[in-house]
Amino acid sequence: QVTLKESGPGMLQPSKTLSLTCSFSGFSLSTSGMVVSWIRQPSGKSLEWLAAIDWDGDKYYNPSLKSRLTVSKDTSNTQVFLKITSVDIADTATYYCARILTIAAISFAYWGQGTLVTVSS
Amino acid sequence: DIQMTQSPASLSASLGETVSIECLASEGISNSLAWYQQKPGKSPQLLIYGASSLQDGVPSRFSGSGSGTQYSLKISGMQPEDEGVYYCQQGYKYPYTFGAGTKLELK
Q1: What Cα–Cα distance (Å) separates residue A110 from each residue in A99, B19, B56?
Q2: Which pLDDT tens digit goes with each residue over B35-48?
Q3: CB of A114 closer than 8 Å to CB of A96
Q4: What is the pLDDT of residue A32?
Q5: Can you give the pLDDT at residue A102?
Q6: How many residue pairs bridge chain A and chain B with CB atoms within 8 Å of each other?
Q7: pLDDT value at position B45?
Q8: What is the model's pLDDT at position B91?
Q9: What are the residue ranges in chain B where pLDDT is below 70?
Q10: Distance separating alpha carbons of residues B93 and A29, to the nearest angstrom
Q11: How many CA atoms within 13 Å lie on the side-chain side of B47?
């Protein structure tokens, strides 16, 4: 059974660095074809894909935020991390991590419950 | 970036009614199109992938079709549990992008 769970600070101040963790089970990120993405959703709005990391350690970023994003994974291939630097109010959102169905069908079949991040002074 | 334009933004359907939601990509995406349902306070749930393949466990009243830049999701026989917001998403090219969503309510 594939499960993912995000964790984060809940609230942080503008200009700080946001650090998020995605802990997962039921698969290993070292398995060929596995990709985990970060996606966010401001309250009442649509979804925005942020970044992804694949089984080979290759990283992909949304160009609109690329300079502020860093995605990484742990050596046990059971956690993925996302850092966003210089946050502001516009970064307030629920942040999800999600795993694709397969490399041949880029759709997000497995999602975490999401973690709400509020940027406020 | 590939822009995904969804329509309508909202609709209301009666029990048993057939509903269609459209998604237009700004360029061809070779059927790399997924549909999701999201209920309040919940994570999105994958319904359709590859434009027309039904995800495991999803009721057969949901179906997807389309090609090139135009895709659609059909619900054949609206049920109360189908209320929610529906999103399309292209997986053809980074950055992956989502439509703005369609809010579906039971009339």
Answers
A1: 5, 26, 12
A2: 999 999 999 999 99
A3: yes
A4: 92
A5: 85
A6: 63
A7: 98
A8: 96
A9: none
A10: 21
A11: 25
Measured in angstroms, the CA of A111 and the nearest CA of chain B are apart by: 7
Q: Kindly report the nearest CA distance between residue B82 and chain A, in angstroms.
A: 18
CB proximity list for A51: less than 8 A, separation 6 or greater? A37, A38, A59, A60, A61, A62, A69, A71, A82
What does the block give as tokens for A100? 């694709």
Q: Do A107 and B101 touch (CB under 8 A)?
A: no
Q: Does any CB of chain A come closer than 8 Å to the CB of residue B46?
A: yes
Of the two residues B11 and A102, the one the predictor is more confident about is B11
Contacts of residue B59, defined as CB under 8 A and 6 or more positions apart, other chains included, come to B79
Asked if B87's CB is within 8 angstroms of A108's CB, the reply is no
> Nearest to residue A94, comparing CAs of A110, A111, A114, A80?
A114
Residues of B in Cβ contact (< 8 Å) with A47: 44, 87, 89, 98
Give the phi and the psi of residue B81 in degrees, each rounded to 5.
-75, -5
Look at the block and give the residue holding tokens 């998020």: A20
Confidence at residue A104, expressed as pLDDT on a 0 to 100 scale: 80
Closest CA to B3 of B24, B34, B32: B24
Rounded-to-integer distance, Cα A117 and Cα A8, Å: 7
- Tokens 């401001």 identify what position? A42
Question: Quick check: helix, strand or coil at residue A115?
Answer: strand
Structure tokens at A55: 């089984």
